[in-house]
Structure formats: C-alpha cells, structure tokens
Amino acid sequence: MYTIYPRTRALLPWLAMVSLACTAGQTPDGAGGGGGVASSSSVTGGFGKGGGGGSDRTCATGTSFVYLIGKDQQFIRFDPQNLAFTAIGALNCPEATAAGATPFSMTVAHDGFAWVEYSNQKLYRVDITTAACEATAYVPNQIGIKNFGMGMTANTPEEGETLYIADYGGLGIAKLELETLELRFVGAFDKIFSAAELTGTADGRLFGFFPDESPAVVAEIDPKSGSILSVAPQPGSAGFGWAFAFWGGSFYLFTSPQGGTSRVDRYDPKDGTTTHVADVPSVIVGAGVSTCAPLVPPA
Q: Of 88, 126, 127, 280, which sees the most CB atoms within 10 A?
C-alpha cells in the first residue's frame, strides 16, 4: 500500500541486476517490545501459540518465498532465510498501465499466482515465475470497499485457503470468493480503525500491519469475526509505501520513510524485537506470501 501525499518524489531507478544480496543491519533505535511447511507454529510471545500443523495442499514451485511489488511495477522474489532479492520482471497489466494506475497491494496463492490490486481498484493475477499479468473479472467497489490490503490463510491444515481483504478505510475484513470474485463481509475491527495490510499462515491465523496507528502495530485478527486479538507496537514510519508478510515464525515489515527505497524490518514475536535487516531499491507497496511458506525457520 502507499499513502498519497500533496507532492510526490521520484523513485530511484531500479538497479539492473538479477539478484540483490542484502546483509543484516542493526536494530533501530526504539525497537522493542525456502523450505516446506513445518508441523507446528513458532508464533509465540504476545500472540500466543498457534494451533494446528502444516499443510498437505499442493504447492507450486516457488510458493515458499515472499513476493514483493514496487510502486514502479517491479515484481521481486524475497528469500527471508538468506535476505536475498531476485528481480522477476516488470508488470505490464492490461488497462492499469494505460490508465496510469500503480500497484496497491498483493497476496500469493499456493497455485503459484499472485493477486495484485492496483490503485484503480482493478484486480489482476500474476504468474510468480514470469511476472506475466492478466486481468480478472473482479468488480470494484463491492459492499462499499474500494482499495484494500490482502492476505491468504489456510482453512485447515489439509484443505484450501481463503483470501482475506482489509478495507483501506479501516472498516474491517471481508473474504474474496475466488470462484465468483465476490466480496463477502466478515466483520468490523473492534479496537483499531485504520488501514491494514494482511498476512496469513499455514495454520489458519490472520495478522495485520496497521502503520497509521500511533505507534504502528502488528495485530492478530480473528478471521471469523474481524476482532483484534492482540497487538504488538512497532517503531518507525510507513512513509511513502508499506507492505507486510509472515515467514518462518517472524513478520517482515516493508516501509519507505524517505521515499525512493524501502527498508525491511523483521519483527520476532518470540522475543518482541524488531530489527532492520535489509533495504530494497524500490518503494514496496505490496508483499505476498502463500500458505506454503514455513511456520518455523528451515533448518
């Protein structure tokens, strides 16, 4: 997602390289507070321990990674284990490019396709291996929801997954029925009333990153009601773009306080620390992770 400001800043040119290796950084002041799916969750600390196990669903090649989309249309694979970024390609989605729209949010399904919403509220499917983009029949402004954040979470350890969306106006969450592309409202937020990006897990949990709160928070959301179950304050500012993903027991926060680039912070709920781990030469506005991502760090 990104925030529209009275004036814009030019994006730095995308570095012409296939892979960007990033080294770990230092924990910012004020910080606190590849593999298959593992058999149990390591999300502990303030969020409690998740139930359930891994997933027997068929996972397409590459769906254990995190995928990113920049405001400059760059589609990127992120390997949290090695803090490595690989440029897949630039999106060229029909209608969106011609209309001057830019990517707004995204998620990834276990079948190897990302779902990307643009600022014009249109929804597209993107092949995570090639960045090839196709339009969908999604009708914008359903049930009063325009732009939104997205996250995919498992229904059960063995069967299916659900694409949840969070209303950019802070109303609450809804489900997107992938067969009909219809939104079905789930419930309103009851403690936080602002925009959120979502991420889900293989054991059926749903989380949101709410950067407009003071301070920003990572919160667990009840996928059945929209109720906020717990919150963890985070340092820093979202700035010109922000995104969010769960991987291997930690949460990855992508923010652009200065514009032009994005920083990557890793929030570890086991010890409550948030650490600056990498930087990306693009303003990241969407992060997607499938339910094939590991629940614990691979050995």
A: 126
Task: Note whether 244 and 5 are within 8 A (CB).
Answer: no
Q: Tokens at residue 94, please?
A: 């029909």
CB 164 within 8 A of CB 173: yes
Residue 23 is predicted with a pLDDT of 32
Split into its structural domains, the chain has a count of 1
| Residue-level pLDDT at 157 | 61
What range defines the domain where residue 279 resides?
Answer: 19-289
Alpha-carbon Rg for the chain, nearest whole angstrom, is 17
Length of the chain: 299
Terminal-to-terminal C-alpha distance of the chain: 32
Q: Which residues contact 100 (CB under 8 A, 6 or more apart)?
A: none
Please say whether the beta carbons of 117 and 174 come within 8 A: no
Can you tell me the distance from the alpha carbon of 81 to that of 263, in angstroms, rounded to the nearest whole number?
17
Residue 292 near residue 36 (C-beta atoms within 8 A): yes
CB-CB contact of 124 with 112 (8 Å): no
Q: What is the CATH number of the domain that holds 109?
A: 2.120.10.30
Domain membership of residue 255 (yes or no) is: yes
